[in-house]
């Protein structure tokens, strides 16, 4: 795939970039290895200071960075501003909490015959991050902030359609005072990821992307005995029970399905609604989805912008056409619009059956599948029948239902009376084919650290 910025609004190529040559890539890897040797010796307080400066720089440049994100991948300018603000918060969070996260963990020395024993956390070196286009700044930042706090060096292989955001991140950390080569962007094709990951100077990898990409990177990392964190697809269930506030649930259902123009792994995608409130929910949900304004993402009145890529829009349309051809009903949307750009309308589908392709896959666009259920048990059985297990949502005021949901839903995250989202304060990640490992919080930072056990024996007799 060519490395270039292409407007999702018009389809026009705005800027192209040359891929790194073999010599240029080798130079970057060599410099990353050299930087790792000195950067690991810096104090966590010094790293925190640089992170704080990066947050300040990003905050000052928020308007231009937001416009860049919108230009490259088509999310609304308002959503891009929120992404920048979230990235600023992530930087400041690790600047504040990183020193405490990295303190040695003491153990009971007397139980192991020692004078002193503890676990100390140490960086492992250069880490490769293979990142997606849908949250081009935040997704990469939630790797970069904890990795740099830990004393690791970052190598960012970003999606080929957001190269300017990727290059901006490298410049941001340099301007903030981080030593040269501690964070580098690699403008390379996906076909060269294996070469980088197999390089002995690269110690680990993290990937957010498709299931096929995760299988490939996981296989390579396993063969090299290198750590990897995989955050892959999601088809999150959104379960609505009779005890909930229906107006609030439908409002959030619209947000959960159309957030980021419907292009997020943690969007609510499958809506399981109890029969007692099904008709009322569907009527309200469809009306609110149909009222959303689709258009220029830079326009303040726009609710949903274009999809990021032409192929992505084609995939969404194919899923919907297949479902409609097999008996699904579109309460709103369901037709690819004419004209320039990669737009697709908010769509609500019912009567979804297992013979439809979307039943088993992830639809990466503003398309909601709504199912009628007669109990929470049935909703959970349907939710858990999907191969993905990233996030999940329950809308209920019943404590027994909440506890059953937390216990039985097969997902890495369970949100009650709110849509799934990411916070630097809490772990993020999935189970089943949604991947393994965790991002964010202290767990995400320690995924790429050596938890070194230290045992110090008793003093020798005088």
From TrEMBL:
The keyword Zinc does not apply. CDD domains: ALDH_SSADH1_GabD1. Residues 3-454 form the Aldehyde dehydrogenase domain. Keywords: NADP, Oxidoreductase. It comes from the Bacteria. Gene3D superfamilies: Aldehyde Dehydrogenase, Chain A, domain 1, Aldehyde Dehydrogenase, Chain A, domain 2. Belongs to the aldehyde dehydrogenase family. This is NADP-dependent succinic semialdehyde dehydrogenase.
């Amino acid at each position: 795939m060519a490395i270039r910025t292409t407007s999702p609004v018009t389809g026009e190529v705005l800027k192209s970039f040359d891929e790194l040559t073999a010599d240029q890539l080798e130079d970057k890897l060599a410099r990353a290895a050299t930087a790792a040797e000195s950067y690991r010796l810096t104090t966590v307080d010094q790293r925190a200071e640089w992170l704080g400066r990066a947050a300040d720089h990003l905050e000052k440049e928020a308007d231009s960075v937001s416009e860049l994100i919108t230009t490259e991948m088509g999310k609304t300018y308002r959503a891009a501003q929120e992404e920048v603000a979230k990235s600023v918060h992530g930087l400041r969070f690790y600047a504040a909490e990183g020193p405490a996260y990295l303190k040695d963990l003491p153990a009971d020395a007397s139980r192991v015959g020692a004078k002193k024993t503890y676990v100390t956390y140490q960086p492992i070196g250069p880490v490769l991050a293979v990142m997606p286009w849908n949250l081009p700044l935040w997704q990469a930042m939630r790797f970069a902030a904890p990795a740099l706090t830990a004393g690791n060096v970052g190598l960012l292989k970003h999606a080929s359609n957001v190269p300017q955001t990727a290059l901006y991140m490298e410049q941001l950390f340099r301007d903030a005072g981080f030593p040269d080569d501690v964070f580098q962007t690699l403008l390379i094709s996906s076909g060269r990821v294996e070469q980088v990951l197999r390089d002995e100077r690269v110690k680990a990898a993290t990937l957010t992307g498709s299931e096929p990409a995760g299988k490939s990177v996981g296989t390579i990392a396993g063969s090299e005995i290198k750590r990897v964190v995989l955050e892959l697809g999601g088809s999150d269930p959104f379960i609505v029970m009779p005890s909930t506030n229906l107006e609030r649930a439908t409002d959030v259902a619209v947000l959960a399905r159309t957030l980021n123009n419907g292009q997020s792994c943690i969007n609510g995608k499958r809506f399981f609604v109890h029969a007692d409130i099904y008709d009322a929910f569907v009527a309200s949900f469809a009306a609110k989805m149909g009222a959303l304004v689709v258009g220029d993402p830079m326009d303040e009145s726009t609710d949903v912008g274009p999809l990021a890529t032409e192929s992505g829009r084609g995939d969404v349309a194919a899923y919907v056409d297949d479902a409609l051809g097999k008996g699904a009903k579109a309460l709103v949307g369901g037709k690819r619009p004419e004209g320039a750009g990669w737009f697709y309308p908010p769509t609500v589908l019912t009567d979804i059956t297992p013979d439809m392709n979307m039943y088993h896959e992830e639809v990466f666009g503003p398309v909601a599948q709504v199912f009628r259920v007669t109990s929470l048990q049935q909703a959970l059985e349907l939710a858990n029948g999907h191969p993905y297990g990233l996030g999940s949502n329950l809308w209920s005021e019943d404590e027994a239902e909440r506890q059953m949901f937390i216990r039985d839903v097969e997902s890495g995250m369970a949100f009650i009376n709110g849509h799934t989202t990411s916070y630097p304060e809490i772990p993020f990640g999935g189970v089943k084919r949604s991947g393994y490992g965790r991002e964010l919080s202290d767990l995400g930072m320690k995924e790429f650290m050596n938890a070194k056990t230290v045992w110090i024996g008793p003093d020798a007799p005088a």
